[in-house]
Specification:
Elements: H1 3-37, H2 43-60, E1 79-82, E2 88-90, H3 91-103, E3 125-127, H4 129-137
Antiparallel strand pairs: 1-2, 1-3
Helix pairs in contact: 1-2
Amino acid sequence: MSLSAVHSTLSSLKTCQTDIGTGMDIVTDVALDVAETAGTENDAVLKKLEVMMLECDVAVTQSEVNFTCPLTQVEMVDPMKNKKCNHHYDRDAIMGMIKARQNQKKKLRCPVVGCGNTDVKQGDLILDQIMKRQILKR
């Protein structure tokens, strides 16, 4: 197998991973909206939905089981997911780093070892509600 074929296959896999992450984010947002607007008569159904979402999210993204922020090395309080590389950071830590690097007029590289994302931006970060719920349930 040629190097270009390997590169092409890896690019396709990265695209699939991004698409799966986007789909999970959409499903999560819809489910959270339903949970917030539903009445108490649906509590049992919503509880089952939440459990299914958590199980699915863990199954799809096994690497996200780590709740330690790569910047602070402590458990995250408000986990932010990077839409580009799918890594997580605590909100205060990553926002502080972004601001510090902007003041230096430099780009912020993802702090996860081996990650190729060389430009972490605030616009690429979203609050990961599923991970936050997982952390709170521990």
